[in-house]
Design a protein that fits this description.
567 residues, Arc Repressor Mutant, subunit A, Rossmann fold, 6-stranded parallel β-sheet, isomerase, ATP binding
Length: 567
């Protein structure tokens, strides 16, 4: 990183350090600027290189009392330099998870065996869904990971059902996800499995976010009144939110984190789930004996000594996709960082971006919205039908203000609506406009990433925006009361995280700027294509694909170190 890359706020932080420690060397102040810049890129710290220069920086921080004493702005862990806040967050998260990682039986082993075998009838050996469920029923901390279609949501439903049935609803169970869309999707999936409505909250609502978004009701001093907390899409949780969540949990609360560590990390500082999954963990003899006794499964012995042993279970068997064909094969191609363009097959297709740049872009883009546009042309006003149809398909891109970016594609689709007589050039709001919320509004339970459809309902003069909160429940919000928002015929892959669609198109830029190239990564493509349940279409050049496979979006963090130091 050169000084030319630094922002005004990075120089401001350097000036702040020079004011509170006037004897700071120029080299130290440069490091402080780089720390500020690194945090803006969602790293929790920076790592100094080995050698004399790094040692001198560490010693200078201590001698100037910038690190060490309570209340010092900087913390040092090995050769990593932190703002003290993020050092404290990582240290607390590690200590809290280690304290949770212990045996915790909720009922006897015969009951557990009967419940698991009744819920899962599988010939897969070993059945990792069964093992994950057993972990959740016998241990206080369980971290369940896996790719698309490996049964993560099905396992959540099984765990929830077994706990509620066996204990006759005496347990207080909370389910949550980082975004409103992810919460709705989990609620729908569990409802389909159990046949009863299940309330799934956003993590912010679970923690009792205040109306102005400045504080949480539940915290270290006033804990959540619950016995079990299950969090889906845990890859989206940043360092600060994980700290807030763990602070609010009762000491005896059972915690189950579920997610895919190969997806894009949080849009906030940190990459918590991926850091947890980097641990070299295994199962000790006690848990292996438990699995053998209850499930009749022999787990291979993995001699490790990690504070997270027995807590992490990776689901390996694909139930939605075959690993050898279609989306499953494409996902594996990406996870292997294969630099060659994947082959087209019945459910995935690859096209050169030039088809859109030099061909009939309008026709190609509009064709994907055929069903939705037909509803609009036919005068459909039922918000549920419009929302369900729109949610069948999503067009994703990593960029906003560029050719084939979010704004360009949205404008293309809106011009098509004008040509069909479905809006005028003066209309900001119009019937059928898909709207993406871009800032949380806690007073109305609208969250960044929520999608609604603008509708004109017969007897109402004002256009309203319909948000489907859960199956069968739709809220209508006046356009005047919407928080910041935008049109979303297209959206970024980050905004789609936590959602699922039947069909997905991903458009990668043909000639990206240097800043955009930094965004194009293996995790971005993997996250985008795994939003699809049935088909994926990718517009991409061979050179951009190769760049993405070589660009892994690794963040600098020291969370793993805290587990190593506890061994």
């Amino acid at each position: 990183m050169s000084l030319m890359d630094l922002r005004h706020i990075d120089h401001y932080f350097k000036d702040f350090i020079s004011r509170i420690a006037p004897d700071s060397s120029e080299q130290l102040l440069k490091v402080m600027s780089k720390l500020s810049k690194a945090i803006s890129e969602n790293n929790s710290c920076i790592e100094l290189s080995d050698g004399t220069a790094g040692n001198e920086i560490i010693e200078e921080l201590k001698s100037l009392k910038l690190s060490g004493p309570a209340g010092a702005p900087i913390s040092v862990q090995g050769r990593k330099i932190y703002l003290s806040r993020y050092f404290h967050y990582e240290q607390f998260i590690a200590e809290r998870l280690i304290s949770f990682n212990r045996e915790s039986l909720v009922f006897d082993r015969d009951q557990i065996r009967s419940a698991i075998n009744q819920d899962f009838n599988s010939s897969h050996e070993p059945d990792w869904q069964k093992i994950a469920t057993l972990q959740a029923l016998t241990r206080q901390l369980t971290i369940i990971t896996g790719g698309p279609g490996t049964g993560k949501t099905r396992t959540i439903a099984a765990i929830t059902g077994i706990l509620q049935t066996a204990l006759k609803h005496s347990l207080r169970i909370e389910l949550a996800a980082p975004t409103g869309k992810a919460a709705i999707r989990l609620s729908q999936a569990i409802t389909e499995h159990k046949g009863t409505n299940t309330d799934v909250k956003t993590i912010h609502r679970l923690l009792g976010i205040s109306r102005d978004g400045s504080r949480f009701k539940y915290n270290d001093n006033y804990r959540l009144p619950c016995d079990v907390v299950i969090i889906d899409e845990a890859s989206m949780i940043g360092l600060t939110l994980m700290y807030r969540l763990l602070s609010a949990l009762p000491d005896a609360c059972r915690l189950i984190l579920v997610g895919d560590p190969d997806q894009l990390p949080s849009v906030e500082v940190g990459n918590v789930l991926a850091d947890l999954c980097k641990q070299q963990t295994g199962y000790n003899n006690s848990f292996r004996d438990c699995v053998k006794q209850i499930l009749g499964i022999d787990l291979s012995f993995n001699k490790t000594s990690n504070p997270l042993d027995n807590s992490i279970c990776r689901l390996r068997t694909g139930h939605r996709f075959s690993p050898h064909v279609g989306i499953g094969s494409l996902a594996n191609h990406i996870k292997e960082r294969n630099p060659s363009l994947p082959q087209t097959n019945s459910s995935t297709s690859i096209h050169p971006t030039s088809d859109l740049l030099h061909g009939d872009k309008n026709t190609l883009l509009v064709a994907e919205f055929k069903d939705y546009l037909e509803h609009l042309k036919n005068g459909e006003t039922d918000p549920r039908i419009l929302a369900e149809t729109f949610e069948e398909y999503r067009l994703l891109t990593p960029v906003r203000d560029a050719p084939l970016g979010v704004e360009d594609i949205n404008q293309t689709l809106e011009r098509e609506l004008e040509s069909l007589g479905l809006k005028t050039s003066l209309d900001t709001f119009y019937h059928g406009r898909p709207i993406l919320i871009t800032r949380n509004d806690y007073t109305q339970n609208l969250y960044n990433g929520d999608v609604g459809i603008c509708v004109s309902i017969n007897d109402l003069k004002e256009l309203l925006v319909a948000f489907v909160d859960k199956p069968g429940k739709t809220r209508l919000i006046p356009t005047s009361r919407l928080p910041p928002h935008e049109t979303c015929f297209a959206m970024t892959a980050h905004k789609a995280q936590g959602s699922e669609f039947t069909r997905v198109t991903l458009i990668l830029p043909a000639d990206p700027s240097e800043n955009t190239r930094a965004l194009l990564s293996q995790e971005l493509i993997y996250t985008a294509i795994t939003r699809a349940r049935a088909t994926v279409k990718i517009f991409c050049s061979a050179s951009i694909w190769k760049h993405c496979m070589e660009n892994r979006g690794t963040r600098v963090s020291g969370l793993s170190d805290f587990f190593t130091h506890n061994v």
